[in-house]
Amino acid sequence: MKYTKPPLRIEDQINLLVKRGMVIPDPQRAARYLSHISYFRLRGYWIPFENDDKGKDHHFKDGTTFDNVLNLYLFDRKFRLLILEAIERVEISFRAHFANELGVAYGSHFLGYFLKLISPGTSWPQRMKLLITQFQGIRPAAMGFQENWKNLSLWHKNR
């Protein structure tokens, strides 16, 4: 299937939105956002403001403004950041508990032992060594490892 719609300049994108019924009181401001966020990124956020015509003509419900769409985008952006912060906290807590419990139970270098235990015959350690060998010109610190990472206990690697 060949895509037949021509690309539109930002000014033309704004004109199309206005033609479809979106109220844009400050076209320069809308142009700034469209140039940094993009028409197609914002497209998903104005779908709830379109008429219920099953997406045929993409006209907007009466009173739909560019700010309605932008506020929904900004809410979603801030909500995603909030969720990612929570996920990061759970991840860090899990890693800390994982390292603490298994480090005490199996020693500070338990990861290799643990991998062999849960997945006998795993090639992960060899693949990791191969990866590091292939990129020898990159210092371990540039990959997020401390220079002496091979000799550190897991709880030091967990930072």
Describe this structure as you would to a colleague.
Helices cover 59% and strands 0% of the residues. The chain is an all-alpha fold and 159 residues long. It folds into two domains: 1-106, no CATH class; 108-159, no CATH class. The mean pLDDT is 83.
End-to-end C-alpha gap:
49 Å
Q: Into how many domains do the coordinates divide?
A: 2
What is the strand tally?
Answer: 0
Q: What shape does the CA trace take?
A: elongated
Name the poorly predicted regions.
Answer: none
Order of helices and strands: HHHHHHH
Strand content: under 5%
Mean pLDDT: 83
> How would you sum up the major sheet?
none
Q: Give the helix tally.
A: 7
Structural class by secondary-structure content: mainly alpha
Q: Helix amount, in percent?
A: 55-70%
Query: Whole-number radius of gyration?
Result: 26 Å
Task: Quickly describe the structure.
This protein folds into 2 domains: 1-106, no CATH class; 108-159, no CATH class.
